[in-house]
Every structure is written in structure tokens, then in C-alpha cells.
Amino acid sequence: MNEPRGPVDSSRIPRFAGPATFARLPRLDEVARADVAVVGVPFDAGVSYRPGARFGPTAVREASRLLRPYNPALDVSPFATQQVADAGDIAVNPFSIDEAIETIEDAASSLQADGTRLVTIGGDHTIALPLLRSVAKKHGPVAVLHFDAHLDTWDTYFGAEYTHGTPFRRAVEEGILDTEALSHVGTRGPLYGKQDLTDDAKMGFGIVTSADVYRRGADEVADQLRQRIGDRPLYISIDIDVLDPAHAPGTGTPEAGGLTSRELLEILRGLAGCRLVGADVVEVAPAYDHAEITSVAASHVAYDLISLLALKEDS
Fold first, then answer.
1. Taking a C-beta distance cutoff of 8 angstroms, is the pair 307, 271 a contact?
2. How far apart are alpha carbons 151 and 162 in whole angstroms?
3. HEC profile of the chain
4. pLDDT for 61-73, tens place per residue?
5. 157: burial class by Cβ within 10 Å (0-12, 13-18, 19+)?
6. 250, 91 in Cβ contact below 8 A?
7. 245 phi and psi, to 5 degrees?
8. What is the mean pLDDT of the chain?
């Protein structure tokens, strides 16, 4: 078996030079096959407030130039134990949400046909629905950990069923989620009414608020989540606005009182050994962040997700 092809050697080619693939990894067409593909979805037609997440994949790739091959927090070299490649972007219609959702589902299913697992960079949170559909085709209903300031289980916006605030309600209705193992993490802020929480609970979601993380700590929260997930196939969906605006100002619907980037990374690391089958990082809107704080955080989140996939590959 050939050794995985890893990132460009930054001791020979400066990090600021060369093509900006994720972590300077090879493109998917440069390797025979990939265990993990990083794919972008530059789509934000489903947003309800500030647009701009269509530029997220490019910004996160650019920020990922500084990532290095060994992850000491998880004691793994994620690019050496599995072939990771950048699959480029899924080109979607920016004027038709319905067509975009269909395109994303078809492209994700095609990329995963040979067993490749996806870490997807959005784009707005609408893209989670077609990604979950694609994963469920292979694994059946999946457990979901949804890191977000918001529930994203609302019914409609202005009569529209497919937006960045509705993907998980649609996924529950379609029967593609394991309703015994659904959790929101990091939620906070005002809601439209108490009925939002009642409806969410009926769908099977448990909630760990950002205040819960603050009071109980990352280790206890991760342990609770692991127990809820068990050995089910797990999909992790991360809206970067789960982080406090101090740590992620570049997003469409910021809410005060969020997680720190350290807390988010530590919770993810506490999920080592879970049966992760796919993940996304969404809602990076770089225009609102002149210092690239948000895209740096998102690139590290994606790196730790890839590292978790490497650990499961080794086990």
C-alpha cells in the first residue's frame, strides 16, 4: 500500500506560496483515492441576516496554510495515517435553493461512493440537510452533534422550508436522524418564543447551552455527549457562530455569550473514539472579520475533525 501523500513541505516552500488547498494537501485528482476529502460549498442563499458565507471555503483554506502535520492534542498525524485530499468546491446554483440542495446531495454521494468520508466547509447551514441525506444513504439514520448558537429547527422563514434555520427539522421529518442521539451544543440568545424549545424537544434534541459549557467544563460535556452517542454513526455539524463573536466575528448571525475556540476544540477532542462518519463547518463569512480570526478558528476545527477521523481509522 502506498504511503499517503501529505501537505507541501513548509520548510522548503513558504506557507504563503503555492495553491491554497486545505492545509496545503494534494487535490483529489492528484491521488488515487482519498480516505477523507475536504470539500467546499460556497453557497449562502439560505441566510436570514448577513450574507457572505459563500466566501467561507476560500477563507478557511487560506487560513489553513499554517496547520502542521502532527496534532499533539490528540497524538495523531492525521495526514500520515489516512489519505486526505482537497476535493475543491461543489458548484451550486446561487439563485435556486432547491436546485442547490439537489446538487450538493448528488455531489456528496458521488464523493462518498468509494468509502471516502467528507469534511465539508460552507457556506451557510442550509447545506447540512443534503449532506445528512447523503450520509444517511450509506449509514441509515445518524446521530448528530450540532454546535451552534441557534437551534436551526424552525419550520419556515417567509414560507420557505429550506433555509439555514430549518435543516434539522427537515432532517427529522425525513427520518434520516437517529432521534435517540441528537444534541445541540452552545445554544444561547433570545428565541421567538418558548414553543421553540418545546418543538425542538419533541424532535428528540437535547440541549447543552453555552452557559452549561461554561459552568460544567469541556470534559464533562464531552463525556455526556459520548454517552448519548454510544457507537452510533455520528455526524458533526458546526456553525462557527457557536463561538462568541470575540472568537468568530466573521459570521452572519452573531450572538453574545458563546464558546471560546478553546472550549470548542476541547469538546471535539473529548469525542475521540466516536464513530464519526462525516462533518461540516459552516457560516464563516470573512467580510465581517478583517483579522481572519474566524477563518483561523474554522481551519483548526476542521483539522481536529480530520484528526478524529484518523483516530477512528487507527482503532
1. no
2. 15
3. CCCCCCCCCCCCCCCCCCCCCHHHCCEHHHCCCCCEEEEEECCCCCCCCCCCHHHHHHHHHHHHHHCCCCECCCCECCCCCCCEEEEEECCCCCCCHHHHHHHHHHHHHHHCCCCCEEEEEECCHHHHHHHHHHHHHHHCCEEEEEECCCCCCCCCECCECCCCCCHHHHHHHCCCEEEEEEEEEEECCCCCCCHHHHHHHHCCEEEEEHHHHHHHCHHHHHHHHHHHHCCCCEEEEEEHHHECCCCCCCCCCCCCCCECHHHHHHHHHCCCCCCEEEEEEECCCHHHCCCCHHHHHHHHHHHHHHHHHHHHHHC
4. 999 999 999 999 9
5. middle
6. no
7. -55, -20
8. 96
pLDDT at position 315 is 44
Is pTM, for the whole model, over 0.90?
yes
Longest C-alpha distance within the chain, in Å?
A: 58
Evaluate if residue 100 carries a pLDDT over 50: yes
Question: C-alpha grid cell for residue 94?
Answer: 446561487
Q: Cell numbers for 146, please give them.
A: 450540532
Helices 293-314 & 56-63, crossing angle to 10 degrees? 70
6: Cα within 13 Å, side-chain hemisphere: 13
Q: Give the integer Cα–Cα distance in Å for 135 and 99.
A: 19
Give the span between the Cα atoms of 263 and 222, in whole angstroms: 10
Residues 185-204 have a mean pLDDT of 97
Read off the C-alpha cell for 49: 441576516
C-alpha cell at 235: 455526524
